[in-house]
Amino acid sequence: MSTSGPLDQARAVFVDGMGAASATSGVLSQLQGRIFALLYLQDHPLSLDEIAEGLQQSKSNVSTNIRGLVEWHLARRVAVPNSRKDHYEAVADLWRVTQEIMERRFRWNIRQVIAACDETRRTAGTERPRPRAAGSERDFIEHRLEALRSFAVAVDAGIEAFSRGEPMAPPAMPAIPIRSGRRR
Amino acid sequence: MSTSGPLDQARAVFVDGMGAASATSGVLSQLQGRIFALLYLQDHPLSLDEIAEGLQQSKSNVSTNIRGLVEWHLARRVAVPNSRKDHYEAVADLWRVTQEIMERRFRWNIRQVIAACDETRRTAGTERPRPRAAGSERDFIEHRLEALRSFAVAVDAGIEAFSRGEPMAPPAMPAIPIRSGRRR
DNA sequence: ATGAACGTTCAGAATGTTCTAAACATACGG
DNA sequence: CCGTATGTTTAGAACATTCTGAACGTTCAT
Fold first, then answer.
1. From the C1' of C9, which residue's alpha carbon is nearest?
2. What is the model's pTM?
3. CB distance B43–A109 less than 8 Å?
4. What pLDDT, in 10s, does the model give residues A37-73?
């Protein structure tokens, strides 16, 4: 068993650091961050058991958490020739992944805000044509809702620009030699 | 007591919607979102008790949660002339607030990633000059760390651009009549 | 000084999340 | 068909977060 060469030690540092970052990211759990980190510094796919053993977690916990990673397209399940086990590798194209997270997490979130504004306006506006003397207060609310809504729309557009377009030199990741299914 | 006009009903919808959005934002708790929503649609500051009553929460809970809102500069504590109570109002300049959140939350988070890369590199590199025959693997790790690091730096710069500069028409919020310290 | 009006802190209850081990399901080699 | 190897589901334990009411400290009017 290859216990703790200096490279494994480095991996441990990375796993901890990325785990901490993930825990506060609002996107990934700490464990998902740790799994990703472990995979990311590996030049070959790892099996569930290897991951579980490397992170000192139960297989079932790794299994459920890795599903999230695969859904976010941060990891990929790959077949390894002479093994029946599932193996996983980190996705190398971080830009693509980031786009996806922007789309599915942040834009979705900001659209919740937009939807809240719209729904509120509908409630405030069409409840009755002019139920009682509250003209000015109603206008104030309308104004604030419009302000928030247009702001949210602007942010949404901004995220889209950042995500869809190529805002600041997508790092390109020039062909790392991954050797996706190797072994033997 | 002015229980549930159509405007209050609209506020309730808004409070729920923003609460839901906040709960998944990774920045604010649900209750913080609800407090902000309540304040945002009010043309005058509210006291702790008014907030607590409006949201059906204990004063202490509102007290602790509102502190976070004030720290994020989403709400402001204001003095109201003839009352000893603290009063709070929502901040209207959402752009400013968003900048702050970008800075303090997202950029800080991405720098964690950068720091993790750097620390890992230090661990992998200077542990010993060349401890044993693992040349290629070490290079692979170095390469991946550099890829992630430069990506993170690019994203960091992107957030800064989005935040510092004026990316897409900062909605401007043209002078809403707030009547900050009104009453009587 | 005294007491009423406030906001905050704190201990514990209520709720939610994360983790484990065991049961279960599925495929595969004999 | 079996039994073994494997991934997934599930029940509940461990842990964390959120909420409440009571205790506390401060301020202010009397």
1. B60
2. 0.87
3. no
4. 999 999 999 999 999 999 999 999 999 999 999 999 9
